[in-house]
Amino acid sequence: MTSTVSTTPFIPAPATPYQGDIARYWNEEARPVNLRLGDVDGLYHHHYGIGEVDSSALGDPSDAEYEKRLVAELHRLESAQTDVLLDHLGAIGREDTLVDAGCGRGGSMVMAHQRFGCKVEGVTLSAKQADFGNNRARELGIEEWVHSRVCNMLDMPFETGRAAASWNNESSMYVDLHDLMAEHARILAVGGRYVTITGCWNPRYGQPSKWVSQINAHFECNIHSRREYMRAMADNRLVPQAVVDLTAATLPYWELRATSSLVTGIEEAFINSYKDGSFQYLLIAADRV
Ligand SMILES: C[S@@+](CC[C@H](N)C(=O)[O-])C[C@H]1O[C@@H](n2cnc3c(N)ncnc32)[C@H](O)[C@@H]1O
Ligand SMILES: CC(C)=CCC/C(C)=C/COP(=O)(O)OP(=O)(O)O
Ligand SMILES: [Mg+2]
């Protein structure tokens, strides 16, 4: 669907060796579970789904078209996740600018522009992802509005106080949370909104479980605890306005995905850690005060 014209003029050197590893990871990523879902309607996500599975849409597993319908259903649940994130951005006008920190292939950015009609700026460490997102925006004729660049989310080239809202959709587990919240607080207007959807380990469990450690190793990330999010926000003028536990809402997605031919091997770790209480899928929306 997407051509391969490079629209990324300048690729900065990674700020740290770790960021170099993460850039390489996403430059090489081409898992069918992400590309085949994106091909359903051209919105390419690198996050997970929420909501009930529509078994009437899936039909009979012995049907020849079942796998295609299952892919479409997983994709519907991933887009539903973005919709919930966008619901928490508050009142956004066409003249506003939004920032997607860790934007992946840009699916959330396109959905944000389609909903609010405004400018959406994305940053990713991966030149391949930035090119993909920019090519997709050009194909949709929205390249004036939706733009991705290769950039460290801890040092974004956006003016202080410029953004009406910003978010991390499953991208905050790659950075120090205090540094991240300080940078969001800097780019956000006073009264602006920050939203994250993230997997975090549950302090009530004690320490990261073996399943959480397995997820970290699988993605080369460093999952933070719920407590760290609260502390990093409080220390950076970000006051939680809503904390929504999406753990129960994401389990149907994982249980459906585990039955598909697109499994990647990480399904068991997500399902077990959500079920044993060691891991939570959380949305936090905060006001920049
Ligand atoms: C799991 S993907 C999520 C993509 C996207 N938010 C979505 O929902 O589809 C994680 C993203 O975080 C980005 N990322 C990780 N560390 C980053 C950093 N320091 N600066 C910018 N992007 C970063 C990766 O490049 C990747 O695009
Ligand atoms: C909730 C947590 C801890 C997320 C870690 C970040 C991550 C890799 C998200 C999904 O990416 P993806 O869509 O590329 O992964 P997959 O290939 O498994 O679908
Ligand atoms: Mg995925």
UniProtKB/TrEMBL annotation:
Superkingdom of source: Bacteria
Pfam families associated with the record: CMAS
EC number: 2.1.1.-
Keywords annotated in UniProt: Methyltransferase, Transferase
InterPro entries hit by this protein: Erg6_SMT_methyltransf (IPR050447), GPPMT_Stmyces (IPR049645), SAM-dependent_MTases_sf (IPR029063)
GO molecular function term, any single one: methyltransferase activity
A GO BP annotation: methylation
NCBIfam families xrefs: GPPMT_Stmyces
Protein name, UniProt field: Class I SAM-dependent methyltransferase
